Amino acid sequence: MGDHSTISRRSLFLAAGVSTLAAPLVLNRAAVFAQSESDATDMRVSPLETRSFKLGSFRVLTVRDGMRPSGAPNETFGTNQSADAVGALLTENFLPADAFVNSFTPTLVDTGAEVVLFDTGMGEGGRENGMGRLTEGLKYAGYTPDQISVVVITHMHGDHIGGLMEGGKPAFPNARYVTGRTEYDFWVNPERMGTPAEQGHQGVLAKVQPLAEKLTFIENEGQVVPGITGLDAFGHSPGHMIFRVESEGKAIILTADTANHYVLSLQRPDWEVRFDMDKAQAAATRKKVFDMIATDKLAFIGYHMPFPAAGFVEKGGEGYRFVPVSYQFDI
């Protein structure tokens, strides 16, 4: 049960000197199907799934908040490409050319001293569509909402902040909240009114601003708790951040929305994505982040990667090939 590799150079973001992830599975992967047989065949009704593994002395848990099937992939990914080009790349990767599935996967890190949740899914607003299952998944894995001590907001798009409030009250009543100041300042600014960002602005006022008294800000390379460091990864949103988690010489990167599809965003990092607010900056960030991950052979968790949302990348062609986790975390 050894390390996969050792970092021998300074990271693009942090000083080197930590080894990459070698994570044995410590709890069973859970898949609970509470729906009827007919509902279970409807992809809008996501099965409840969690995956837990060990990172040094930390426990890392991913929870699928939901998944959503959509048509016309080129309307979201490769928006500066033809529909035929997008469909051809999907077909080459054994995927349908005219449809895709988006998963939403918050991550919890239990350090022993703190229970840190990264993003909160769709929340109550997504439940009519079979999503918003984070708190249900956390409870299945052994965590109640009042045990969460820190909630980290990687950025403030609706599928990341939707679960912050429940019934008009904080969903995680004992938590403090951490995010980047650049992100918060952008979204609360009343200048967003009358712009394409108005809906997001209203969402932040409803979901994030009520928690302002418990909110603290970090800058690039700022510490959330010992072993967890925030890194600027702007582009998808004005203040989008990723996070490096490390314990006992093991490390993993939580890439949030740096890449939103395991084929279309990773194999073609220059392709424009509908939801990237600064498309050129987002593409540059994708290449910077995944160059580092590939070179240092780090594992990563991506919010929209196929569940359990964890894997590796290797450089290839115009971008990167996603290598999903298999048994390497179980032995």
What is the CATH C-level name? Alpha Beta
Task: State the shape.
Answer: globular
CATH superfamily: Ribonuclease Z/Hydroxyacylglutathione hydrolase-like
Structural class: alpha+beta
Describe this structure in words.
- With 331 residues, the protein is of the alpha+beta class.
- The chain has one domain: Metallo-beta-lactamase, Chain A, CATH 3.60.15.10.
- 18% of the residues lie in helices and 28% in strands.
- The protein is built from 7 helices and 19 strands.
- It has helices spanning 37-40, 83-92, 134-140, 158-161, 181-188, 198-207, 279-296, and strands spanning 30-32, 48-55, 58-63, 66-71, 99-104, 107-110, 115-118, 150-152, 165-166, 169-170, 176-180, 215-218, 223-225, 228-232, 241-247, 250-256, 299-302, 310-316, 319-324.
- The strands form 4 sheets. The protein has an 8-stranded mixed sheet with strand order 1-2-3-6-7-8-11-12.
- A hairpin with an 8-residue loop joins strand 14 (228-232) and strand 15.
- Helix 5 (181-188) crosses helix 6.
- This is MBL fold metallo-hydrolase.
- GO terms for molecular function: hydrolase activity; metal ion binding.
- Residues 103-304 form the Metallo-beta-lactamase domain.
- Belongs to the metallo-beta-lactamase superfamily.
- It holds the Pfam family Lactamase_B.
